[in-house]
Amino acid sequence: MLFSFWFVCVNRNQSHCFFEQSGKLKALENCVAGSLGLRAGSYGSLPNIKNVIAGGGRLLHSKSFGSVRKNPIMMLSGSREKERSFPSIWYRYLGRRKISMLLLVALAVLVFVLGSFVVNKESNSPNVDQRIGTMSMAHYINATRTEASRILGRRNRQKGGDGNTFQASVSKGANHPCANFTFPPPPPPHLRRIGPRPCPVCYLPVDQAIASMPSSPSESPVLHNLTYVHDENPIKTEPHGGSDFGGYPSLKQRNDSFDIKESMVVHCGFVKGSKPGHQTGFDFDESDLAELQQFHEIIVASAIFGNYDLVQQPRNISEEAKRNVPFYMFIDEETEAYMKNRSMLDSSKRVGLWRIIVIHNVPYSDARRNGKVPKLLLHRIFPNIRYSIWIDGKLQLVVDPYQILERFLWRQNANFAISRHYRRFDVFVEAEANKAAGKYDNSSIDAQVDFYRTEGLTPYSEAKLPIISDVPEGCVLIKEHIPITNLFTCLWFNEVDRFTSRDQLSFGIVRDKIMAKVDWHINMFLDCERRNFVIQAYHRDLLEHMPPPVAVIQRPPALPNIITRGRNQGKKIPRHGRDRRSGSRRHHKASAGNRESNFF
Predict the structure, then answer these.
(1) Which residues are CB-contacts of 467 (< 8 A; sequence separation ≥ 6)?
(2) Lowest mean pLDDT among 116-130, 172-186, 218-232, 250-264
(3) DSSP state string for 422-479
């Protein structure tokens, strides 16, 4: 059997060669082998073919044909002399492409090593201010450039640092297991996610965290004996706010409470009654009063008022914490009725790990302001505890309490810890944000901020360093119960009772007035670290009004719209003669009818 085969080859000089080979199958195989460019050496030449190929009235030797069809990679090298400059043994056993890949890999490894060296050199620099360096990390994690980060970056560079370090602050020395923990470098700009996100936190194992608990209370600077005002008939004597529950402290009493002395008597809620929770407003059941007087090393507390949230069960809690750390959830009667109707609460008063405490005779009509009572006055409700962790009702705890206390109090030699706001650090900016979001009526916010301005509050600036923020993210409080921290939360509550319930606005002024009198500080850690151990859920009303998830239905592809007649569907029956012509007419009429129906 004879074959005829045409071949066209085009080289980079745009030259063409044509040949025709006629013969049997063997001749065709030889020709196809040449057209496929089978390699026999390191330069991509074709195998030597002894036969001579005829074409165009002249003879083309197989070597000349192979030289026409050179490998494109070889064409890029420029000349064979350049290739001979490399050791031939590498090309013989590895090939040109593998050599190129090895060179690229070597270059990538070199860049990676140099980059790692630079990052490690910056992180381990002895001139880095670790506390200020974490502020720079917040800028990368939260993808928000603020004036504070620029101020702190300048101050850090003046001290000899680079303003862009990721070392985590550790106060227990180089022997601490987390002493060398560093934040990972920020992702490239195009991979950063907008909005606040959690960041890594170095926690000790639970047994080591328990072993780190101080054996004795921290020393309270200056103040050693703190008692509270009791008044069965409080009278409002000034036009400012206040309540019967708070006792209406005067401005003079307010100012005197910031004059720190060894022994002090201050307003701190629960001014009526023989003890907090008994005929004081914000009252407890008798069975609960006895339990609240018991001694505990650590408690975790939260609250839901106005049926505003759903109970969030803690996760990742150790067996030691389940045995030794009680979890208390304060609710009002409205929330209690909702939980009983949903069969969530029974006579045991337990929902998962939470021990439910029902509050009667709430002092305020505002559910958020009622929630500030257990949040800021836990030391009055629990007079015999050492440490407390407060989380808002919308939060779910996902890290063991011992690990949280070790990380944010014991390791830092601190007795009060709160996260700073992830974006705002200035009270005046925070006030405008609250007004824009409708958090409270604008006139009350303006009155509070104007009052603080007359007391000397100024916008945040570099002059406030080492204070790094005036605005907290106040949904988590970590506290050791000693006189100075109890005084701080008392005076903070008095501001919430006198002015608006937005405790972010009053935090800074109370802290600054106390720090001006005594050597005391607050650990304001990164908000991304807070988001590491609590997860924020939606409020109940938002969850109930959310539409259910839409199920995605995978529909099969539509079948083609084919009109068939008779029993032989899909089989075309030929027509002949008159039948074919009449069928064509019927087909045209049917098509016209379909077009009209589609149009309408």
Answers:
(1) 512, 515
(2) 116-130
(3) SS---HHHHHHHHHHTTSS-HHHHHHHHHHHHHTT-----GGGTT---S-B-TTEEEE
Q: Which residue has the higher pLDDT, 250 or 78?
A: 250
User: Model confidence over 77-114: pLDDT tens digits?
Assistant: 454 444 455 455 555 555 667 777 888 888 888 877 77
Pick 235 or 146 by higher pLDDT: 235
The answer to whether 400 and 209 are in contact (CB under 8 A) is yes
Distance CA 222, CA 80 (A): 87
pLDDT value of position 480:
98
Whether 454 and 206 have beta carbons less than 8 Å apart is answered as no
What sign does the CA torsion over 335, 336, 342, 343 have? positive
Q: Is 477 exposed, middle or buried (0-12, 13-18, 19+ CB in 10 A)?
A: buried
Which residues on neighbouring strands pair with residue 417, listed in sequence order?
Answer: 478, 523
Omega before 466 within 30 of 0, i.e. cis: yes
Residue written as tokens 């060398």? 180
For residue 184, give Cα distances in angstroms to 46, 260, 340, 408: 54, 42, 47, 20
- Looking at residue 51, the DSSP 8-state letter turns out to be S
For the entire predicted model, the pTM comes to 0.66
The token duo for 59 is 């003879």
**Residue 350 bridge partners (DSSP):** 355
> Do the beta carbons of residue 225 and residue 483 sit within 8 Å?
yes
Full DSSP string of 225-287: EEEE---SS----SSS---TTTT---HHHHHHTTS--SEEEE--S--SSSBTTBSSSSB--HH
Using CA atoms of 489, 495, 501, 503 in order, give the dihedral in degrees to the nearest 10: -50
The answer to whether the beta carbons of residues 197 and 137 sit under 8 Å apart is: no
Euclidean distance between CA atoms 141 and 183, whole angstroms: 10
Tokens representing 466 are 């080492």
Per-residue pLDDT band for 14 (boundaries 50, 70, 90) equals: very low
The tens digit of pLDDT for each residue in 295-326 reads 999 999 999 999 988 999 999 999 999 999 99
Tell me the pLDDT band of 117, cut-offs 50, 70 and 90.
low
Residue 577 has pLDDT above 90, yes or no: no
pLDDT per residue as tens digits for the range 31-81: 334 444 444 343 333 334 344 343 443 433 443 434 444 454 444 445 444
Specify which residues 283 forms β-bridges with.
360
Residue type, 63: K
Distance separating alpha carbons of residues 566 and 419, to the nearest angstrom:
79
The answer to whether residue 266 scores a pLDDT higher than 90 is yes
Other beta carbons within 10 Å of 156: 21
What span, in angstroms and rounded, lies between the C-alpha atoms of 518 and 499? 25
Distance from C-alpha of 54 to C-alpha of 41, rounded to nearest angstrom: 25
How would you class 338 by CB atoms within 10 Å of its CB: exposed for 0-12, middle for 13-18, buried for 19 or more?
middle
Structure tokens at 144: 């928000």
Q: Is 266 in contact with 490 (CB distance < 8 Å)? A: yes
Q: How many CB atoms lie within 10 A of CB 324?
A: 14
**Contact (Cβ atoms closer than 8 angstroms) between residue 423 and residue 142:** yes
